[in-house]
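The protein record passed on below.

***
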Amino acid sequence: MAEFLIRRRRVVPDSTDEAMFDKFIQPPAEPSRTLDRVPADVFFRRNVGDGIDIPLPFRLPDGKDKLRMWVVGNPDGTRTFPSEAIRVRAGQTVHVETTTSIGPHTIHWHGVEGSPMNDGVGKHSFEIRGRYTYQFTPRDPGFFFYHCHRNTPLHFEMGLYGALIVDPPQGPGYVSALSPATNDVVPYQSEVIWVCGAQDPRWHEFSHNHAIGSPDPNDPKSFTTGGGLGDWKPTVFNITGAVAKDGATVITDPRAMGRARPGQTVLVRLLNASYAIQEYRIGADALVIAQDGRALGVPPYGAYSEPFTIPAGKPFQLTSAMRHDILLRPAAPGVIPFQVDYWDWQGATLRGRAKTQIVVA
């Protein structure tokens, strides 16, 4: 087995000592690059750090009507923001051949219990400069997501993330939820994925390694736009990549707006993909069946939990990286409004709002 250099030492309080953290950056050469490699059931290719411009329905203070993002691109498909969803089934062995556009990156499979060398947290293993094939086998169905874990505050803000959906063995159209009569798998007919993001355009002028190597990243004095990454004031708000014009205009972009028929079961997958405290309102009774990829009430994690209903219009909140799986069952034609308020990460200031809807017809 290849040797990996991991060297750490803490900064001495009140000293001029600099934080040091060396790690193995280039994984070993093939065929030993992916440790304990086994044949894959599904295979993906992804390139971390592709740049794209997303159009804005307004102009920024500098006059620009677009915002530069970094994404995890699909060399076999398209580059999108958020990055293209990865969808697999529980029990499948997944290989993701990963390359990078600029500088080292990782892909962390948030919520999936992979081996330490395939978890994608660079400080525990390595960062990729070149090529590496991640390998993992998700045991349980759920809504997860993936993101770069190199210089995480900046790279997450820049858009290096996407949805990771683990379907039950039955595949799309079924979700893990408490239902003993159907072995805890529930069918749905319409799926809406709301990845709610917020961006501070000032951060998008920073370089790949911005704030890495500052004298002490834990020193509040370094929390400035010139050094650290503590000054975050978002002015761009989006739902699944569709940018809100303002806090009143409903987003009708199909990336954000859902559609269903009366009597259908709608599965809403909701992710807070920002540093804001997000507060939501859904215009229908919402049955929360899972949190952070774990189905409520479903073994083996459900002994002390159960699904719960959020009444129509009642506000509820999620903080960064949290997810809810929600079932809606509209009985009649109409519109189900959805609103997300983006509160400052200290919860004191309302920074923005975005609205969309599910059209039932």
